[in-house]
Specification:
Blueprint: E1 2-4, E2 7-10, H1 14-25, E3 30-33, H2 38-43, E4 49-51, H3 52-60, H4 65-70, E5 72-74, E6 76-81, E7 84-89, H5 90-94, E8 99-101, H6 104-117, E9 121-123, E10 127-132, E11 140-144, E12 150-154, E13 157-160, E14 178-193, E15 203-205, E16 212-216, E17 222-228, H7 239-250, E18 262-276, E19 279-280, E20 283-285, E21 291-292, H8 300-319, H9 324-351, H10 359-374, H11 376-386
Parallel strand pairs: 1-12, 2-3, 2-13, 3-9, 6-15, 13-20
Antiparallel strand pairs: 4-8, 5-8, 6-7, 10-11, 11-12, 14-17, 14-18, 15-16, 16-17, 18-21, 19-20
Helix pairs in contact: 1-6, 1-8, 8-9, 10-11
The protein binds arabino-flavin-adenine dinucleotide (FAS) and P-hydroxybenzoic acid.
Length: about 400
């Protein structure tokens, strides 16, 4: 079946869904195709923290009703190391900026509900997605829908929002793309537990046995992570072993980690990855399709939303004949992407123990943690990056 739309969007994650909504608000029609089911996309456990800027973006798009009711505003985090737990006060260090705990699952549910309520064209459960004719003025998005009908959709533009393992970035000719990648020698084992959090704000813990993070989803559901080997087998991590290891890494006199039923557990590999440019002809990449950060800096979801905040107005202008913003899209996003990539690498290497590393690594990490916890300048650097570093206008001549 042959059809037409202005913007073809691949992927119903936060990037694709938000783009579809922002375009609709500006009268631009789109077709969004997703390989997974709606239920799968809504249940996929991922990020948990929204920067100030992401909350504002969702509010201004009319998507923050439940977020404002259920989101938990946090004014800081704790760094735990060498028997100490020190608070980093974001409000004090950044002149009032905070973060909000509101899970990516909830952001995706809100976005899908709004797109469907607005009769947005969102196709779940598709197969055989292809993008072609990208360097022409009429790129094509092809897919087979859940009923088995093959579609060829002629578009003015295609947005590749299909994540790290999607098909859009690989559709760009190798010679047109530069990539940078770093894989880390560890992974995160994450659990969702039906137990009230044992802390009021997130705890990032450095420990000789490895990193641990105490996050949360609500005042009754906790989200915790444990550094494990990159090839760790989840079957070797029964719940009691996970709780025992978490208790060990968060141990502090007079404090107890509350335990409870584990509702979900999974292992996530860790990498830093950037690809540039984020545009090829009439294909624009956004979110994980273009870049990946280790989750230690709580940046992945926020970067995806920030890319789309730049892409939506750029596409609206392009479709009205003005290519200025679209020509700047990649450079504008990459400036922020590299800042977040560095910050996520910095948090990761400061807090995780490399397998086989000598004691020198531990001493250097502890020195850095003591400096961050005691120097206003160093703590401010962490606070302004964690809450969302406002990128100044693009430096002239940057890539
Ligand atoms: P997404 O990956 O969310 O969405 C891409 C969508 O495209 C998916 O729904 C996929 O099914 C679909 N797709 C792929 N190929 C397709 C095709 N051929 N055709 C159609 N659809 C296709 N970030 C944090 O900040 N904190 C965290 O704790 C954290 N934990 C994470 C855990 C895991 C396991 C992963 C993978 C990521 C995690 N992230 C975390 C990062 C994560 O939140 C991403 O940054 C965020 O999902 C990016 O959103 P999108 O760019 O929309 O990509
Ligand atoms: C989460 O709540 O899932 C979360 C929070 C902060 C991170 C990573 C994950 O850095």
């Amino acid at each position: 079946m042959r059809t037409r739309t202005q913007v073809g969007i691949v992927g119903a994650g936060p990037a694709g869904l938000l783009l579809s909504h922002l375009l609709a608000l500006r009268g631009i029609d789109s077709v969004l195709v997703e390989i997974r089911s709606r239920e799968y996309c809504e249940a996929r456990q991922r990020a948990g923290v929204l920067e100030d800027g992401s909350v504002t973006l969702l509010r201004e798009a009319g998507l923050a009703g439940r977020l404002d009711r259920e989101g938990l505003e946090h004014g800081g985090i704790y760094l735990q190391f060498d028997g100490e737990r020190r608070h980093i006060d974001f409000r004090e260090l950044t002149g009032g900026r905070t973060v909000t705990v509101y899970a990516q699952t909830e952001v995706v549910k809100d976005l899908i509900a709004r797109r469907l309520a607005d009769n947005g064209a969102v196709e779940f459960g598709v197969t055989g997605t292809e993008v072609s004719r990208l360097d022409t003025g009429q790129p094509r998005l092809s897919y087979t829908d859940a009923s088995g009908t093959r579609h060829d959709v002629d578009c003015d533009v295609i947005a590749g929002c299909d994540g790290f393992h999607g098909i859009c970035r690989p559709a760009i000719p190798a010679g047109a793309l530069t990539t940078w990648e770093r894989e880390y020698p560890y992974a995160w084992l994450g659990i969702l537990a039906d137990v009230p959090p044992s802390t009021d704000e997130l705890i990032y813990a450095h420990h000789q046995s490895g990193f641990a993070l105490h996050s949360l989803r609500s005042l009754s559901v906790s989200r915790l992570y444990l550094q494990v080997a990159p090839d760790a087998d989840i079957a070797q991590w029964p719940d009691d072993r996970i709780w025992a290891e978490l208790s060990r890494r968060f141990e502090l006199p007079g404090w107890t980690l509350q335990q409870g039923p584990v509702l979900d557990k999974s292992i996530t590999p860790m990498r830093s990855f950037v690809s540039a440019p984020m545009r090829y002809g009439r294909l624009f990449l956004a979110g994980d399709a273009a870049h990946i950060v280790p989750p230690t800096g709580a940046k992945g979801l926020n970067l995806a939303l920030a890319d789309v905040a730049v892409l939506a107005p750029a596409l609206v202008a392009l479709l009205r004949g003005d290519d200025t913003l679209a020509a700047d899209y990649s450079a504008t996003c990459l400036s922020r992407v590299w800042r977040s990539t560095h910050f996520s690498w910095w948090m990761t290497t400061m807090l995780h123990r490399s397998p086989g590393a000598d004691e020198m690594e531990a001493q250097l990490q502890l020195s850095q943690l003591r400096y961050v916890a005691s120097s206003t300048a160093a703590a401010t650097s962490l606070a302004e990056n964690y809450t969302g570093f406002a990128i100044a206008s693009r430096p002239s001549g940057s890539a």
